[in-house]
Amino acid sequence: MYDPRVSARGERSALVSPDLHVGSFRFWFVGQSWEWSDEVARMHGYQPGEVVPTTELLLSHKHPDDRQHVQDALDHALLSRGSLSSRHRFIDTGGRVHTVIVLADRMLDDDGTVVGTEGYYVDLTDTFDQTRRQVLDVSLPELLESRASIERAKGALMLVYRIDANAAFELLLWRSQHTNTKLRALATQIVAELATVDFEPGDLRRSFDHLLLTAHERIDRDGEA
């Protein structure tokens, strides 16, 4: 996923979808340095460029009941050289509690060496707002036509991420829009791969993150899985 020849700021601007409350991040294992997109900074209550993200700052915002869980996820990523994935709550500078899903994959250099993890914060605090309702209205004919595959894909997301049906649909819709992939094709691909992917024992969540973030790469451009 990582390409050192592309500037971090330039890539972030192409990876975010502010209407869906999504922001991107990068975490380098060596030196434990972070990058937040402007959207992630705003989620935490900061203006873009106001703070330099650090592990200490990140953990200071976590909900007290979830802080150890996030610390454990971070430790696991550092020790295993894997991805940093989590579902947790954090508190912004104004005292508001956010519920987020962190979807991430390993970050590789040109030689294929794992150098960190990168992915997205998906803020589920206000799911299915008017913007998404308008998108749903436009997409309704396709949804009705491909209801079975979408419902199965939603079910998988609900199980893995412990979210409701609206939030699961929002995640699918975001990935469809972000990757310029038909919603039906994406859902069909995810469902098909669930039966064939060799999920890592005891690491279903991270394996599923990788599937969700890369499924569009295995769909031909005619829109068929």
Automatic annotation (TrEMBL):
<keyword id="KW-0418">Kinase</keyword>
<feature type="domain" description="ANTAR">
    <location>
        <begin position="130"/>
        <end position="191"/>
    </location>
</feature>
<dbReference type="Pfam" id="PF03861">
    <property type="entry name" value="ANTAR"/>
</dbReference>
<dbReference type="InterPro" id="IPR013655">
    <property type="entry name" value="PAS_fold_3"/>
</dbReference>
<dbReference type="GO" id="GO:0004673">
    <property type="term" value="F:protein histidine kinase activity"/>
</dbReference>
<dbReference type="InterPro" id="IPR011006">
    <property type="entry name" value="CheY-like_superfamily"/>
</dbReference>
<keyword id="KW-0808">Transferase</keyword>
<dbReference type="GO" id="GO:0003723">
    <property type="term" value="F:RNA binding"/>
</dbReference>
<dbReference type="InterPro" id="IPR035965">
    <property type="entry name" value="PAS-like_dom_sf"/>
</dbReference>
<dbReference type="InterPro" id="IPR052162">
    <property type="entry name" value="Sensor_kinase/Photoreceptor"/>
</dbReference>
<dbReference type="Pfam" id="PF08447">
    <property type="entry name" value="PAS_3"/>
</dbReference>
<dbReference type="InterPro" id="IPR036388">
    <property type="entry name" value="WH-like_DNA-bd_sf"/>
</dbReference>
<dbReference type="InterPro" id="IPR005561">
    <property type="entry name" value="ANTAR"/>
</dbReference>
<feature type="domain" description="PAS">
    <location>
        <begin position="36"/>
        <end position="81"/>
    </location>
</feature>
<protein>
    <recommendedName>
        <fullName>histidine kinase</fullName>
        <ecNumber>2.7.13.3</ecNumber>
    </recommendedName>
</protein>
<keyword id="KW-0597">Phosphoprotein</keyword>
<dbReference type="InterPro" id="IPR000014">
    <property type="entry name" value="PAS"/>
</dbReference>
